Amino acid sequence: MAIATSTSVRLGAAQLEAFIAAAFVTVGVSKSEAQTIAQLMARADVNGSEGHGIFRLPQYIRRIKGGAVNVKPNIRIEREAAGMALVNGDNGMGHLVMKFATEKAIEKAKTAGVAWVGAKWSNHAGPASLYASMPVAHNMIGLYLAVGNANHLPAWGGLDMLLSTNPIAIALPGEHESPVVLDMATTVAAYGKVKTKAQRGEMMPEGWMMDRQGKPLTDPKRSNEGFLLPIGGYKGYGLALMFGLLAGTLNGAAMGRDVVDFNADDTTPTNTGHCIVAINIEAFQPVADFKKSVDALVKDLRNSERLPGVDHIHIPGEGSHAARADREKNGVPMPPSLMAALESLAGELGITPLGNKS
Q: What CATH code is carried by the domain that includes residue 3?
């Protein structure tokens, strides 16, 4: 499917998956693992997480070619107990590591009630919601934390870049309502959004970044002259610190000065840390009762009295649900700048260009 618009084309998820998988196979990833990565990356685009889907493909391929990522990892459990595990990703693609870790957390939570699985020696794995949402299909709640793959945040009041966007995602099911899914960075904007703005030649709104003199920075191409701002001021800084300690330091993964900027370095392994928690609802109460309670609260929030000029009360995850409904029907919007980058990648790898069915 390719639908022309004034600024972009729209391509179906199957086309994205096929292109992504073909690209990874050319650099030594097995067909089955390339397909797994491609499905997760395309799902990110379908869900509206544009900064974490196919947009990242040239960077992933560049780092594999540079030797920074292991294309034949032995992903394994290094430590284990009834309600926990520590996964060593052997420097494999983060999507593979986190799929393995999440499936292990779900398996353990079926008997333990709650399972916490940490991961080290991983890589960038896409949007946090991908993994937090997986337990939902098993009548579980998912919680995901990670250390970002580049430091763009100083301590509150500082200038040294010692923290990243360190995201959190929480997903839980409703009965008739769509799952409630919170997916957010601990900075006002994730750095992936800054990168997409730069690629599209767009400016950032004030409040995303600040320069080293404390003035607003709105040109994404000058992002290396400043830093991202935390959500809620010093509170966001505190969250970024604590999430990093849980997802990075606890697992023996990189944190603070040890974080490698994967935007600028194509040769050094990042030792990215993540953690996924699966909570079995049945261990706490009947699943049906919980889902009904979620539905009731969502309806109360949505129908609550609104301020003048507010047309709708939003529930976390609504934007993603709407994007998915649109993109499953009409395809994923692909801006000209992104298509050009992917066409260049296709030429470099010797694969069929995206959208070309010949």
A: 1.10.1530.10
Residue 46 falls inside a structural domain:
yes
Mean pLDDT of 266-285: 98
pLDDT digits (tens, 9 = 90+) for 59-79: 999 999 999 999 999 999 999
Residue 324: exposed, middle, or buried by beta-carbon count in 10 A (0-12, 13-18, 19+)? middle
3-state secondary structure 81-93: ECCEEEEECCCCC
Give the pLDDT of residue 192: 81
Say how far apart CA 92 and CA 101 lie, in whole Å.
Answer: 13
> Domain tally for the chain?
2
- Residue 94 pLDDT exceeds 80: yes
Judge if 254 and 273 occupy the same domain.
yes
Q: What pLDDT, on the 0 to 100 scale, is given for residue 199?
A: 84
Token pair 């999507």 is found at 95
Domain that holds residue 265: 73-187+230-303
